[in-house]
Structures are given as C-alpha cells and as structure tokens.
Automatic annotation (TrEMBL):
It holds the Pfam family GtrA_DPMS_TM. The keyword Lipoprotein does not apply. It is found in: Membrane. This is Glycosyltransferase family 2 protein. It comes from Sphingomonas paeninsulae. Signal peptide: none annotated. It comes from the Bacteria.
Length: 399
C-alpha cells in the first residue's frame, strides 16, 4: 500500500481516511464500513447477522466485528468459526467484563474503518438501511446517522405501551443532557465517522447501554446528525439481556455525565450503598437486642449489646458487599467462589476501615470536642478507604 500522491487517480482501489487517500493493491482493500455488533448469548443469531449483512451491503467494502463478553453459549467461538470462512468477520473476545457500551467502544477502537456502525446482534435492527446511512454519512456534512424509531416511517415493532412510554421519558432526559437534537438518542443503531468518535472518546463514560447518548454528550462540539427511519424487528433467537437494573445503569450514566468530572460515579454509588448499610445496621441491631432481652431478661445487657452489634455489623457489611457487587461493580460482578472470596476481602477491608474511622474520629474529638464533625470525618475517611481498598482487593480489574 502506498500513500496516494495528489495527482494519482482515486478510484475503486483507494480509501480516504484521516483526510488522506490510500491506494491499495486490488484484492487487498480494507473495509470502509465496519459494523460493530456487541453480543451476549447470541450464538444462533451471529450467522444470521453475517448473512443479512452480506445481502444488504453488496458493493460496499464492509466487515463485522463481534464484541463478545465470553457468553456462556459460546457466541465468541461461533463467531470465530464464521471468521475462518469469511475474512470480513472479526471477533473481539472480552473476558471477565460485561457491558454493552464498553463493548461498542472497544469494537470501534479495534477497527481502522473510516465509518463505523453499531448494531444489535439479535436481528432487531434493520440492516437494509445501512447503505442509506453510509451514503448520507459519506457526503461529509454530518458526523452521525441515527437509525431512528421515532421519525416518520420509523416504528417500534410490537413493544408494549409501558416500554414505549419509558423510552420516551428517557429520550426527553437525554435530549436535555446532550443539547443535540437527536430524534432518538436512545437508539442502539447508528453509524458514525471516525473523527467525531475519536473526539468524543476521552469524555466517554462507557457505562450501561446507551452508547449513542454517551457519545453525543461527550462530543466537544455538537454532533451534526441525520436520521434514517427503521422499524424495530422482533428478536430472532434468545432473550433480552436488559433487565430491571438497566434503569439504574441509565441513572449512573446521567450522574457520570453531570458530576463525573468532580467525583467518579462508582464512588457515589459506593457511598449510597454505604448509607443504606447504616439503616440495615440499626434495624438488625434493634431487632437482635430486643429479641435477646425478651428471651433473657435485662440482666447482662452489656453482653447482649456486643452480640447484637456484632451481628448488625456482619449483616450490614454483607448487604453492602452484595449491593455493591450488584450495583457499583455491575460490569465486574463476582460469582461463585469469587463471590465468597470477595466477601472475605471486603470484610477485611472494612475491618481496617472501621479501625481508621474510630482512630480519626477520637483523635479529632480529643482535640476539638466537636462530636458531629469528628464522627463525620471518621465516616468520610472510612468511606474513601473502603472504596479505594475494595476496588483493589475485592473488585480488582483483571487486565
Ligand atoms: N458484549 C456485550 N453485549 C451485550 C451485553 N448486554 C447485551 N448485549 C448485546 O447488546 C444487544 C442488545 O441487547 P438486548 O438484550 O437485545 O437488548 P434489548 O433489545 O433492549 O432487549 C444484543 O446484541 C446483546 O447481545 C453485554 O454485557 N456485553
Ligand atoms: Mg434486542
């Protein structure tokens, strides 16, 4: 491959990327369009996707990048088998991590194509509009083309009323946040040029499942947007991965976009869970103490308190651990034996955190005598300590 000189012909065997024209040997042309497909348990759908793209993208140099989070149904190895028969198929296999948005980002970063589309791996998105999207985008006057369910001609398939209403509400919130007029900023089906994506990259939260919203909100300049309507189809095989907690993920994304530059959203989540632990603690403490006193009478009250306090601490630490595993570290959720080991390290971390709490609070109290200030300082130190240490020892990122 050689970089084209100004006077060299730009024809079918050349590609323009980063403002430069590259000329290729015929038969070695790289993709101009990369379709990034995040997958989790889509083994049966993967071949359908490849076949559908082959039909829809005749005359376009395309590739598909499946980004699979080590699906239990073996989607990644199915996709690799497809890739052995068709060089346009590529696979990014992630291990020990989950997340739709981060999968899309890594898929886009794994290709050199000047135009990238994001499309679901369950055949719900209508691949036949991809050529129209590419046509629109390659004119160069827009950064982004959204496959939109709301503009005229678009449709929702057979979504139920509640889901449509929820989606419209989320859309309204999103438009406020991005200050970009996208008819359907919640759409998971869109095509973007490389440069505007790279510009948004440093600001991305990569939390949850609304990657388009994330990109639009992170772009340093408002994205120039066009929309192409499509009708949402029904999922071909398998089931939806988006459960009740997607609302929580959406909230996390909004919080990160609003306050993420001040404090990490994970810390906010960790602190909120910690706050819930206080209620759990007092509830268990009261119930245990009342029960012990009712059974044994008021004698030895001091000893019953120690037992009740110990039980409350253990239960509250456990609920904190489980909630953090579910909410704060949803993308790195521990399971099975790792869950047990995580619980042990979390207890150890919190044990030291508790010692630090008492130490700092009593030190301050002895010097200044401000009860509430001392207590709050102790709590703050513990929260930061527990957060930092559990992120290292309990939910350490596997690289
Ligand atoms: N890599 C990856 N893909 C995911 C994850 N969760 C969902 N997906 C994929 O994202 C797409 C949309 O998810 P889906 O469950 O169909 O959501 P729904 O259409 O809103 O019900 C599908 O292709 C899923 O396989 C994830 O954690 N990691
Ligand atoms: Mg789907």
């Amino acid at each position: 491959m050689t970089e084209a000189l100004d006077d060299s012909p730009v024809g079918a065997n050349s590609v323009i990327a980063d403002g430069k024209s590259f000329v290729f040997e015929t038969g070695m042309l790289p993709a101009e369009l990369s379709v990034v497909v995040p997958t989790y348990n889509e083994a049966k759908n993967a071949p359908l996707i490849v076949a559908a793209l082959s039909r829809a993208l005749v005359g376009i140099r395309w590739e598909v990048v499946f980004v699979d989070d080590d699906s239990p149904d073996g989607t990644a190895s199915h996709a690799r088998a497809l890739a052995l028969g068709d060089p346009r198929v590529r696979v990014v296999h992630r291990y020990g991590r989950r997340g739709l948005a981060s999968a899309c980002v890594e898929g886009i970063l794994a290709t050199a194509a000047p135009y990238v589309a994001i499309m679901d791996g369950d055949m719900q998105h209508d691949e036949t509009i991809l050529p129209q999207m590419l046509d629109r985008l390659s004119k160069g006057d827009v950064d982004l083309v959204v496959g939109s369910r709301y503009v005229e001609g678009g449709g929702m398939g057979d979504w139920n009323k509640r889901r449509v209403a929820m989606s419209r509400f989320a859309t309204m919130l999103a438009n406020r946040l991005t200050k970009t007029a996208i008819g359907d900023p919640m759409s998971g089906f869109f095509m973007i040029a490389r440069a505007p994506f790279m510009a948004a990259l440093p600001g991305l939260s990569s939390i949850g499942f609304k990657i388009l919203l994330d990109i639009a909100a992170s772009s340093p300049t408002p994205l120039r947007v066009a929309e192409v309507p499509f009708t949402f189809r029904n999922r071909q095989h398998g089931e939806s991965k988006l459960d009740g907690l997607v609302l929580w993920e959406y909230l996390q994304l909004l919080i990160d976009k609003a306050f993420g530059h001040i404090v990490p959203v994970r810390f906010i989540s960790f602190a909120l869970v910690g706050g819930s632990g206080v209620f759990v603690h007092f509830f268990v403490l009261t119930v245990t103490l009342e029960t012990l006193l009712a059974i044994n009478g008021a004698s030895l009250e001091g000893r019953w308190f120690v037992i009740a306090q110990g039980a409350a601490t253990l239960v509250a630490t456990t609920t904190n651990f489980l909630l953090n595993n579910l909410l704060t570290y949803r993308d790195q959720r521990l399971k099975g034996a790792k869950l047990v080991w995580g619980w042990i390290t979390f207890n150890l971390v919190c044990g030291f955190g508790f010692a630090a709490n008492v130490g700092v609070a009593s030190w301050l109290y002895q010097r200044h005598n401000y009860l509430i200030v001392s207590a709050l300082a102790g709590i703050a130190v513990t929260t930061v300590w527990n957060y930092a240490m559990s992120s290292i020892f309990t939910w350490r990122k596997r690289g």
